[in-house]
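Exercise 7.
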Amino acid sequence: MTQRDMAGYLGVTTVTIRNWRKDKPNLYEIVMKGFAFDEAIKQSKENYEKLNSLVVKKS
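Solution. The predicted structure, written as tokens, is:
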């Protein structure tokens, strides 16, 4: 996800994101970890679906 995407999702400008990174590093870190967490959840769901499709279904 780009900074533009993140800014749009949060309803702020990309300048705000850059300012957080420079002036409020703790806030920036929390926001970035939140996006990383969402991505990890998405990836886990995709992996689960892939693995589930490999399961041989018994009748």
